[in-house]
Each structure stands twice: as structure tokens, then as C-alpha cells.
Design a protein that fits this description.
With 464 residues, the chain is mainly alpha-helical. It is built from 20 helices and 2 strands. The protein has 2 domains: 9-187, no CATH class; 209-463, MetI-like (MetI-like fold, Orthogonal Bundle). A two-stranded antiparallel ribbon has the order 1-2.
């Protein structure tokens, strides 16, 4: 009798150790559990979880009604993005021309993205309903009572507190970050530009044409893209590493033994951070303008005859933005490197001096390797930030001087400022979307490849 009883129990699903997954619900579920795939909440309702079953069923009904009556028309037009344009049509009954309300391609695409996300969310709820029905079935088979709605609510503020706390932020990320990104990616495959502006005009799907135009170095758009990409990378390298090394050198000078008033020197650089960066950039723009105070003084002193075109000539403008960015960026590096420099063991420097190493040799063999290993993630972050450093370029030069070959792109434009101009000024949203995707891919590849090949990743246990 004992063996028979043990065998029966062993052959049944157990509440402990039983995986409550969707696959097990399909393979081992009874009729009520499997019917839950068609009628959400049925398995819970049959086993006495009336409120939970009703909630799952109501969500299913709402999702179907929303999909049929609200989402259906938009999803139906998603393949064409609209066929009826705004225009005048002749009304044979009234014998007059009337204005016909047309489709709006942008709204069709936007609502379709949100509706697809809504359907995915409803499918997830339905998936949860099937798992919940199977969990209730297993509880019944093990002689236990399925959890009621009050127990589930208490669990949300107890052992499932992490789910409750993360639900709202996750929903916000999806609604305000993920879905807009998906909408932007979709625009890259359309001809949504200044000539196809809804609701007056429709835009359509064009496949990979925009990507081909950007990557075609022989076209004006492609030539501008590769020129701006090259300058963007040069700018990012200069803005990152010049700030880093000059900031480290100044920090070394401040931390050197015998230097007095160290706190005063550190504070003087921190004051530069206290002024918002865009204020400094706008001030420098006025100061270095062709008719600004600097050129006026130099001309009055007789040092120059013509104004120095700090911001309106290609090479001087590029040098100027790099130099001005040093003023903004070096104080941050000083603060970061000062703490690390004070933590380098003095024994290392003592050993280097005994071996006959001078100041330069100590810096190259002791200070620099230690700093690079500790600050590589910071350098990668700064490099990516400088690729997308909108303020430094836009507030100082606004991307000027103009490029005669392509009016939309200036000689000092970065990819991010060119993207801004394409959207705000020229309404070429399709090309701007492609540039946004290209920038993301470039930044992602640089960050992943660079970090995984550095000592920071290989020796991460050293700093734990």
C-alpha cells in the first residue's frame, strides 16, 4: 500500500520542482489548461480563481476589440502607408468641388508601431494566463488550494516586490524610448523627406534605398556622410585624448610634492565646471566672431589687417572647437585622475627611481599604465559622448562654414548636428534616421571592441 501510494504521487506533477513553463502547460496540461490557449482565464476560473480568470478574460476581450476596431485600419494600411492623398474631388450630386480628406502616412506608421507593441503585450498577458492555469492545475493535483487574488496581491509587495517596483519604469522605457526608436528605424526605410510631407503628401516604403544613398561615396549625400564621419572621428579622438592627457598632466603638477595651495588650484578648475557648458560656448562664439572683441583688439593694436576667421574658415574653425573644448573638458579629467594618482603606491615610484628612471620614464612606465587600466571605461564613455557632442559644435560654430557641395551639411558638422539639421531645418527624416542608425552601430562597435581588448576587461578582478 505504501509502495502504491508512493508510485502514484511520484507519477503526478509536483508543486515543488515542477516547471510552470508554457511548454509543460501544453504537454501536461488538462483540457481546461489547454483551452486557456483559446479562452484566456478559463483554467483559472474552472479551479476557483474567479477574479484572476476574469481579469485574464477581460484583457483578451479588450485586446481583440482594440485590434479589430482600432488597430485594424492602421495595420491594413501599413503595407502601403496610405493610398488616398488630400485633394479636391468633384461631387456630382452637389455639382461642386469638395476637399477630400486623405490618409496620413506618419500616423499610420506611428499607430501601427504602438498597436503591434500593444498586441505583443497582450500576448504576454495571455502567455502568463496559460502558465497560471497550469500552476493552478498542479496545485489541485497535489492537494493544495490555488492561490487567491489577495495572496497574489500580497506577493506583489513581498517576494515579488522587484517586479512591482520595476514594472512602471520598464513601461516608461518601452513607451518613451524603445517605441520611438523603433518608429525612427522604420522611417529609415521610407521616403519621408521634405517632398513627402503628410498630410498633404504621402510617403511610402523604399527598402534599402536610403542606406544605399548614404553609403554611395559618389553621390552628394554619400560624399557628405563620409566627410562628416571622418571629421567626427578626428574630433572625438582629439576631444577625448587631449582632454585626458592635459588633465592628467595638470593633476600631476597639482599633486606633486612641494606644490603649495593644492586645494586652491583644484578649486580654481572646479569653478570652470560650475559654469554651464553652453554658456561658455556661446560666450566664446561672441568673443571669437569675425567682428568680435578678439579680432577688434588685434586690429586696433595693428597685429592683423583682416579679421582672423576663427569660426568661419574650415581649418581655424576645427582647431578652435577643439581648443575651446579643452577649457570645458580638462577640469572633469583633473577631478577624476586626482583621486587615482593619490592611490598609486609610492613603492612603485621608489623602485623606478632606484632603477634609474627619470620623471618621463616614471610617467610612461608607472603612472600611465596604472591610469589607463583604471580609466579605460571612462575614456570609452567620453569617446562615445564626444561622437555625439552636440553642444560643443552647434553652440560654437553651428556646423559652419557651409559646404557648397551639400547645403545641408557644414564643414564642422558632426553626425549628430547634421542629423539635427536634416530633421529640424530640412525635414529629411528618412536620411536622418539612417544617420542615427549608422551612429548607433559605429558607437556600439567601437565601445564593445575597444573595451573587450583592453586591460580593464582582462584584469577587471584587480580593482575589485
Amino acid at each position: 500500500m505504501r509502495q502504491r501510494r508512493a508510485g502514484v504521487v511520484a507519477g503526478e506533477p509536483k508543486l515543488r520542482g515542477e516547471k510552470m513553463g508554457f511548454k509543460n502547460a501544453i504537454r501536461k496540461g488538462d483540457a481546461a489548461t489547454r483551452l486557456t490557449i483559446l479562452i484566456s482565464g478559463l483554467g483559472n476560473f474552472v479551479r476557483g480563481q474567479y477574479i484572476k480568470g476574469a481579469i485574464f478574460f477581460i484583457v483578451q476581450v479588450i485586446s481583440w476589440l482594440g485590434l479589430i476596431f482600432v488597430g485594424g485600419p492602421y495595420l491594413r494600411d501599413l503595407g502601403t502607408l496610405g493610398t488616398h492623398e488630400v485633394g479636391r474631388v468633384f461631387d456630382e450630386v452637389e455639382q461642386i468641388y469638395i476637399m477630400q480628406q486623405g490618409d496620413n502616412s506618419m500616423l499610420i506608421l506611428l499607430y501601427s508601431v504602438f498597436i503591434i507593441a500593444f498586441v505583443i503585450a497582450c500576448l504576454f498577458v495571455h502567455y502568463t494566463a496559460v502558465k497560471s492555469a497550469y500552476a493552478a492545475q498542479v496545485a489541485k493535483e497535489n492537494g493544495k488550494k490555488p492561490t487567491d487574488i489577495m495572496t497574489d496581491l500580497r506577493n506583489l509587495f513581498d517576494k515579488n516586490m522587484h517586479t512591482t517596483m520595476l514594472a512602471l519604469p520598464s513601461l516608461g522605457v518601452v513607451a518613451f524610448t524603445v517605441l520611438p526608436i523603433l518608429f525612427m528605424v522604420c522611417l529609415a526605410f521610407t521616403n519621408f523627406d521634405r517632398f513627402h510631407q503628410p498630410p498633404g503628401n504621402l510617403f511610402t516604403w523604399v527598402g534599402l534605398k536610403n542606406f544605399a544613398d548614404i553609403l554611395d561615396g559618389g553621390s552628394n549625400t554619400g560624399a557628405a556622410f563620409f566627410r562628416i564621419l571622418g571629421w567626427t572621428l578626428i574630433w572625438a579622438v582629439c576631444a577625448t585624448f587631449l582632454n585626458y592627457f592635459f588633465g592628467m598632466i595638470i593633476a600631476l603638477m597639482i599633486n606633486k610634492k612641494g606644490i603649495k595651495l593644492k586645494s586652491v588650484w583644484r578649486t580654481s578648475f572646479v569653478i570652470a565646471i560650475a559654469v554651464p557648458g553652453f554658456v561658455t560656448l556661446l560666450f566664446m562664439r561672441q568673443l571669437l566672431g569675425d567682428m568680435g572683441p578678439v579680432n577688434t583688439l588685434l586690429q586696433n593694436w595693428g597685429w592683423i589687417k583682416e579679421p582672423v576667421r576663427f569660426l568661419t574658415s574650415v581649418t581655424p574653425a576645427r582647431i578652435t572647437v577643439i581648443v575651446v573644448n579643452l577649457w570645458i573638458g580638462i577640469p572633469y579629467t583633473i577631478l577624476i585622475t586626482s583621486g587615482l594618482l593619490m592611490n598609486i603606491p609610492a613603492d612603485l615610484y621608489e623602485a623606478a627611481r632606484i632603477d634609474g628612471a627619470g620623471t618621463v620614464k616614471q610617467f610612461r612606465s608607472v603612472t600611465l599604465p596604472f591610469m589607463l587600466t583604471a580609466t579605460t571605461p571612462y575614456l570609452i564613455t567620453q569617446f562615445i559622448a564626444n561622437i555625439n557632442n552636440f553642444n560643443a559644435i552647434y553652440f560654437l560654430t553651428a556646423g559652419d562654414p557651409k559646404d557648397l557641395a551639400n547645403a545641408t551639411a557644414g564643414k564642422t558638422d558632426l553626425l549628430i548636428t547634421w542629423l539635427y539639421k536634416l530633421t529640424v531645418t530640412y525635414q529629411d527624416y528618412n536620411l536622418a534616421s539612417v544617420i542615427g542608425i549608422a551612429t548607433f552601430v559605429i558607437c556600439g562597435i567601437i565601445a564593445l571592441v575597444t573595451y573587450n581588448t583592453t586591460a580593464s576587461a582582462k584584469k577587471e578582478d584587480t580593482f575589485r
